Amino acid sequence: MLLSEVIDAYVLLQQSLGKRFQSARTLLRRFSREMGNPDIQEVAAANVAAFLRGSGQLSATWTLRYRVLSGFYRFAISRGHVDTCPLPTSQPKLPPQQSPYIYSTDELRRLLNATSALDLVNSPLKAMYRTLLMLLYGAGFWRKGTAGSACHDSWLVYCVIDCAQPRGAPGGSVAPRDQQVACHSRWFPHCE
């Protein structure tokens, strides 16, 4: 059986179980293309190791690829498509994870002041950008987390946030959830 056919069957199974499986599907299809879409029995361990390594320095991507391929090969072996798994038996020593960069107070001040450079005459967008930066930075949101939010996930953004103290310090106040939901329902009924 061709590698792409087994990949399609595996993706279909995972999606039938309720998983979105988008990024894993993309990775597996890339794997199939890089292997040349051979019969699944003909995939060489050396080629799999080269795919896992990728180009550039060794990173956490190796582990991600390994986990996806490991699940795929467990599926392929259990269905009798392949006899042995061509994945390496030992994992390489990965470099330590990078710690997240936290802006200093001065850097954050300069970032917020940069919003005044927006060339928008008589527009509330300057204040909006400044407020959005403070909200996202203060709440610790990442770009991917906010960009992928659906309307029902972002109800808090539309309500008043009043935190007089830094996060975790006593004295900050946020309205109880039922008041926030009521606020959200009043201003954004289409998101319910």
Q: Which features would summarize this protein structure in a list?
A:
8 helices
Architecture overview:
The chain is mainly α and 192 residues long. It has 3 domains: 3-78; 102-148, no CATH class; 149-192, no CATH class. Helix content is 49%, strand content 0%. The chain is built from 8 helices and no strands. It has helices at 3-16, 22-35, 45-53, 61-78, 105-113, 125-139, 143-147, 177-187. Helix 1 packs antiparallel against helix 2. The two termini are 47 Å apart.
TL;DR of this structure?
It is built from eight helices and no strands. It has 192 residues and is an all-alpha fold. The protein folds into three domains: 3-78; 102-148, no CATH class; 149-192, no CATH class.
Quote the average pLDDT. Answer: 77
Rg, alpha carbons: 24 Å
The largest sheet is: none
* H/I helix tally: 8
- Globular, elongated, flat, extended or rod-shaped: what is the shape? elongated
Number of strands: 0
The end-to-end distance, rounded to whole angstroms, is: 47 Å
* Estimated helix fraction: 40-55%
In percent, how much strand structure appears in the residues?
A: under 5%
Helix/strand-derived class? mainly alpha
As residue ranges, the low-confidence spans are 148-177
Count of spatially separate domains = 3
Provide the succession of SSEs.
HHHHHHHH
